[in-house]
Amino acid sequence: MRINHLQFIKKYGWIIPFVGLAFTFHHPAYAQATPTETIQKIYSFYQPQSDNDANDIGFDRTSSQSSQFFSPDFLRVIKEDDKLTSAQGDASIIDYDFLCNCQDTMDGIIVRNIQVLQQTQHTAKVEVSFDFIINGSDSFQKDDPFSTDHPGQQHIYFNLINLHHHWLIDDVTDANNVGIKKDWKEELHKFYNSSIQ
Predict the structure, then answer these.
(1) Contact call for residues 154 and 126 (beta carbons, < 8 A)
(2) Which of 13, 19, 173, 197 is in the most buried spot, having the most CB atoms within 10 Å?
(3) Going from the N-terminus, what domains does the chain have, and what CATH number goes with each?
(4) Mind listing the pLDDT tens digit for each residue in 75-132?
(5) What is the number of other CB atoms lying within 10 angstroms of the CB of residue 82?
């Protein structure tokens, strides 16, 4: 027996909005479809603040939003470090902001370029070039300690993985692909007897 499409829509059409909502809530708040989008979104936390409050600049890697940007393995290292070092009253083993390789974000960061160096279906390597904003200015004077007259002098490299169509940072590396995650784990084993793999 053929089903009349109009009758079907009248009878079951009310379900469609709820199905749409279910899919909306299923996806993470910061679902990034490309490696570039992941990097753009995490660096949006480093944009200059209109009220010039430097305390609001940067990304707290221990926040609940971290799972939207870091792979499960990298996040395990962050949480293990936070748990073990805090229990001893110690600072983090990585006692700097690895997203800018700095202790102080100054007045914010201007991202100059995001370049995908390598990408497969499951992994990507990305280079980020940026500059710090100093005293509210991103003009590059030769006597500035963090910049030169050529924009984009700071470089950070990221290894990302594609997990369920969601690109996540799995390690932060140098130009030679030497990452912080392996050494971080080793330090946790050595100084805190961590069992993290």
Answers:
(1) no
(2) 173
(3) 31-192 (3.10.450.50)
(4) 999 999 999 999 999 999 999 999 999 988 878 888 999 999 999 999 999 999 998 8
(5) 13
